[in-house]
Amino acid sequence: MHCNWLPGVSGGAEGSANLLIRGGTPDQTLILMDGVPIYNPTHLYGFFSAFNPDAVNNVELVKSGFPARYGGRLSGVTDITLREGNVNKFSGQATVGLLSSRLMLEGPIFKGKTSFLVSGRVSYLALMKGLLAEKVGNASLDGYKFHDINAKINHRINAADRIYASVYTGSDQMTSRYTSETIDSLGGGKLEHSTGTSRDKMGWSNLLASFRWNHELSSTGFFNVTAYMSSYSLLIENDDASHTVTEPDGASTDTFNQYKWQSKIRDFGVKVDFDYIPNPKHYIRYGLAGIRHDFTPGVAATRSSDSEVTPPAANSSSSTFEQIAYVEDDINVNSKVKANVGLHAVSYSATGKIYKGLQPRGSIRYSLPGNVALKASYSYMQQFLQTLTNAGLGFP
To answer: Which of 20, 224, 280, 318 is the most exposed place for a label (fewest CB within 10 A)?
Structure first.
């Protein structure tokens, strides 16, 4: 699905998989994978999406008239649903590309009752570094690699109950190296010969896990209970080492400096969503959710041949709590007029303060002849999490 071809949606920088919706920034778009939020869902500096197309069943983009069940972002929502796996027969497919290849397998564990789906994608840029490496003087790009894996199991307990479990993991890693060599005269016929190496490493990763129980209450309603975890981590490392020899006496000195910087965000969430269809004119949804956000917004550790410094862990992390309640109704007024009305309520606890908000939502559509419709909507949105960015080259 080429979302950036739609009105009001752009793809950001050239070659980027980020979506900018109605002038918003990438962090103002909520990205959901099977109902679980994912942070920085890209590979190769945004060139590739983190979603393996072989595992995707459906993609829904909401860029205005937000239903009350969505919240936490200002610009838009990309809701991605993964395939559940074939319960009757085994199948698979493989795709080989210039930069990466992928494999998908699916089939029954217990025929007609339990199924699995596993998909994976891996790059082989590291194997092609002789062709792709960038060399400037004594600097070189040692390698770049990324991978992602989706796994999902669904099991039908009985006619009314079904459970789903899914896991996603993906990571990127880049390594570059710089070498140097100097010879200095110390006078008196002595020379100092120094060689040095510097290695830079940067990587980021996502890990998602979820468990969902679906229960059918009756022919007019059902509910889902979901527990999930979503984790994002960014790591930057630098290692410098030098070896110095004084000639002609042969005295040598070795020094090193190491730097490590890591930033993390981890969400733990539980939500209950009810769907109720009392009659053909109404489709009512309502639910509750609680989310704990754990932040490690940037912890640096340094180590050298002279000293070692590690910041106290007690000052490096914090947690916030978010509580959500919503109700909405899809209304079929008549054959030409359809409407959606709802209310999203949120409470966000951070640094000893509580921020509350009521977010009314409403939209209406009037169908005209010839596949034409008039639409109007009102949405009040609040966003508590913001991405801090770097004015130069860098990552959020």
So the answer is: 280
312 by Cβ neighbours in 10 Å (0-12 / 13-18 / 19+) ranks as exposed
CA atoms of 49 and 17, how far apart (whole Å): 6
Backbone angles phi, psi at 157, to 5 degrees: -75, -50
The rounded distance, in Å, linking the Cα atoms of 237 and 251 is 30
- And the tokens for 121? 């994608």
CA terminus-to-terminus distance, the chain: 26
Q: What gap in Å lies between CA 19 and CA 25, rounded to an integer?
A: 8
d(CA 301, CA 260) in angstroms, rounded, equals: 5
- Percent of the chain past pLDDT 70, that is, above it, reads 86
Nearest of 228, 226, 227, 225 to residue 207 by alpha carbon = 228
Of 218, 213, 144, nearest in space to 177 by CA: 144
Question: What pLDDT score was predicted for residue 163?
Answer: 96
Please write the tens of the pLDDT for every residue from 135-169: 545 555 567 788 899 999 999 999 999 999 999 99
Selection from 89, 173, 78, 166 nearest residue 125 by Cα: 173
Per-residue pLDDT tens digits for 93-140? 998 887 788 999 999 999 989 999 999 998 876 665 555 445 545 555
DSSP 213-224: EEEEEETTEEEE
Q: Above 80 in pLDDT, residue 41?
A: yes
With contact defined as beta carbons under 8 Å apart, do 124 and 102 qualify?
Answer: no
Confidence (pLDDT) at 15:
45
